[in-house]
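Lecture 7, part B: from sequences to assemblies.

Below are the input chains for today's worked example.
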Amino acid sequence: MAEAAAVAATEMTVEMVKASQLGMKALGAGLAVGLTGIGTGLAEMAIGSAAVGATAENKDIFGLVLLLTVIPETIVIFGLVVGLLLLF
Amino acid sequence: MAEIRAGPVPYIYVCTRMRVRKSKLLPREEYMRMLNMGLAEITRFVGESQYKREVDELATSFRGIDLIETALSWNLAKEYQNIQKITPGTLKDLTRAYLRRWDIQNVLTIIRGKLHGEKKGKIREVLVPAGELDRVFLDRLLEEPTPERVIEALKGKGIYPILSRMTEGGVREEILPKVENELYKQFYADLIAYAHSGIKGGRQFLDYITLDIDITNIRTLFRVRADPSVSDISGVLIAGGTISPQALQRVFQIKDTNEFIDALVPLIKVRPLRELLEKLREERSLREIEIELIKVQLAEMETMSKLHPFSIHPILAYLEMKKYEIFNLRALARGKESGLAPERIRGYLVV
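Predicted structure of the full complex, as C-alpha cells:
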C-alpha cells in the first residue's frame, strides 16, 4: 500500500513535464540575456571610459567614440535573440 | 575606497587622455619648418598653437624671446598641475613623486639666481612650479634677499635637510654642483623606497626609475670622461639602477673608447641602449651623445607605455615628451635670437 503511494508520488504527468520544460526555457532565456548583459557592461566599461577620456581632449571625435562604445551592444542583442528563440 | 570601487576605469580614462595629448605634440616636420623661420614667426607660430592662452596672457608684459620663454614655462607648469588633477588614486601619488624633481630644479635656480644677483622677474621666467612647491611658495622664496635666507625659508620641506647640511659654511657657487648631486641622489632613493613600499603600480614605476637612473649615470659617465683630470666619479653616480655605481666606476677607468664601450655594453640590459652605445664608438660630440641618450630613453618609455597601457608609464612618457617639446621650442627660440645657423640649432633638438 505504502509502496503504491510512493510510486504515484514520483510519477510525472505530461502537464508537469511541459511546465518543467517551460520553466527551463525561461531560465535559459533569462541567463542568455543576463549574462550577455554583464558581458556587454564589462566591455563598455573599458571602451566608455577611454571614449570619455578621448572626448575630453578632442570633442570632434564624439560621434566616432559613441559608435565604438555601442559596438558591444551586439553581444546583448545576440543574448536577447537567443532568449526570444527559446521562448517562442 | 573610491578607487577600488571604480576598478580600472579611472586608469583607462586618464591613460587615454595622455595618449591623445601625446598625439597633439609637435611632430618632427613642424620643427624642421620652424628651423627656417625667424624669431617673430616662431613667436607667432607658438602663439597660434596650444600655447595660445599663455602667450595671450603674457603678451602685455613680455616681448620677443622673454614672451616665448615665460609662456612655455607657464604652459609646462599648468600642464603638469592639470595632470595631477585628473590622475586618480595611486597614479596621482606616483606622478607627484616624479614631479618633485622640479622642486630641486626650481630651488637651485632661485639660489643660483640670487648668487648672481639676477632680478626676481628674470628668475621667475624659468621656474616651473610643477612639484610640491607651488607658485605662491616659490614667489615667497624669490622675495628672500639672500641664498641663505632662501634655504631657511625651506625649513620643513623634504629638500631642506640636505640643503642646510651642505651649505653650513655659506652658499658658494663651487658647492652647488655637489648639493645638486646629493639632492638628486636623495630624490632617486626616495622614489625607489616609495616604489618598494607596496604601492599599487610600484613595480612599473620602478622600471621607469631604473631606466632613468641608468641613462643619467651613462650620461654622467660620458660627461666626466670629457674631462681627463677627473679620476673618481663615485660621488656623482646614482645608486639604484640596473648597473651598480661600482661597475660604472670600473668602466670609467678605461681610457680607450673602444675598450670602454666593450666593457659598458655587457652591463646594459636595454637593447636599444646597447645598440646606441655601439654607434658611439666613432667620435661624437658630447651634445650629440646626450641627445641620442634622451631619444633612447623616450623610445624606451614609449615601449613601456605600450606594454603596460593602463599604468603610470603612459603618463610619464607624456610628461617627458612634453618637457622635451618645451626644451626644443626654447632651443629654437634662443638659437634664432643668437643668430645660430639652422643646422647648428638642429643639433640641439630632441626630434
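Note for the exam: The radius of gyration of chain A is 23 Å. Keep this in mind when comparing with the next example.
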